[in-house]
Amino acid sequence: MWAFWKAPLVLLSFVPVVLAFLSHPLRLPELDAVIEADVLRRVPHRILENCSPGYQITPAPDGETVFINCVRKLARFEKRDGRWTETASYDPHGEWDEAAFDFEAHRAYLYIGGDRRMETIDLDTMTAVRSMELDENVFRPRHTGIYQAIDEDSNRLFLGENNGLVAALRTDDLSKIAGRLAVPEDDTVWRVLFAESRNELYVLAEHALLVLDGDDLSVRRRADFTDAAVDMLLDESSGSVFVSFPAAMRVHRYDAATFENLERFPAPAAVRALAVDHARQWLVMASYNGVVSVREVRTRRLIKRFRVPPIVRRIALFPENGTMIVTSGKNPALEVNYADFDPPFDLTDLMLRWSERAFRFFSLSHGSDGHQRGLEGRGP
């Protein structure tokens, strides 16, 4: 027979469960996404001056230089006295989204969508060494949102337009190698990445992930999505592709060769930017709202959560010193220490951890496979 004092303890144990339902009643399994940015502690940071807002982040191979798309300029930052300092920049006088970097040749390629102009930039002097208008037969986009990738070994430049047009060009004369409409007009391309080891171009659209042959852009394989995707990370060292689904609040890891769905990671609501710390085996996920969630790649175990300013666009990790750069569509670019920062005690976070354990126990005891798959991060 239970002692009289056990009843209040049993009732108290269900308080976190009730709070979880009240705070986010629409989705039971993804409890990681319940925490909003305003209840998490903000990580200490350093501002990268003169880069607000920011977008694409491209670290150089030396680890001491990084190039950032800061509004309408391409800025070069170098590590000096422990801080990122802007040392040079280039203004192409036009709207552009992403640049493609050939670090072996010390060149960057910027496509100015408004007048179909390709700028070739010397990364040492940050000046234009060539400005060429692309003929309509080479690349005729219907949208100014252009994403780029490059094959440094074969001197090929790949362009992907929001509305689905993909083209491969030679970097020496910008002549056309191949072109195709990769996705239907009602879909949207968000990212293109090139895998040199496979000679494959990965094209992420809102509802599909395609792999195109690097030579003729023919489709090698395709995976269709029910939920809308917004960003991807190609990890050639593990042969994986990570895709973020902001509305579904999860990140999927696919086998790059077969598109087998290997893992599903619970993610913050509106998850966007992704990065992998190979040294620590961490997956870092940053949301549009400013929530950063860090999980182990192998076990999906939650390591930590914290927040940065909202409207996150991209993140880039520097595992050697445990820092990362975060760009925002509204706020200055920041450097934060994601590895050593230990978030202080957070009652809300603790309650949600209790809730997750309670739901897992409830699912196991009642044989609820659906709930269990969601909590463990598996499933399609």
Structure description:
There is one protein chain. This protein is mainly beta and 380 residues long. The protein folds into 2 domains: 29-344, Methylamine Dehydrogenase, Chain H (7 Propeller), CATH 2.130.10; 349-380. It contains 4 helices and 28 strands. It has a 4-stranded antiparallel β-sheet, with no helix packed on it. A 4-stranded antiparallel β-sheet has the order 2-3-4-5, with no helix packed on it. It has a 4-stranded antiparallel β-sheet with strand order 6-7-8-9, with no helix packed on it. Helix 3 (347-366) runs antiparallel to helix 4. The longest helix has 20 residues, at 347-366. The protein is globular.
Number of helices: 4
What does the oligomeric state look like here?
Answer: single chain
The helix fraction, in percent, is 10-25%
Largest sheet descriptor: 4 strands, antiparallel
Short synopsis of the structure:
The chain is globular and about 75 Å long.
Task: Looking at this protein, list some descriptive labels.
mainly beta, 2 domains, globular, 12% helix, single chain, four-stranded antiparallel beta sheet, 380 residues, Methylamine Dehydrogenase, Chain H
